[in-house]
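Hey, does this match?
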Amino acid sequence: MVSINELAEHESTHPVLAKAADSIASVMIRRSGTVGGNIFPGY
């Protein structure tokens, strides 16, 4: 799984996703939260 923080740090690879990930929550939440964990509960 990719943490939200890891996604936010790779702006050169995925600039739109990085910008969105950077605005989600505080740094502590981004470090522990994962992209899959945020998508899965919706299904």
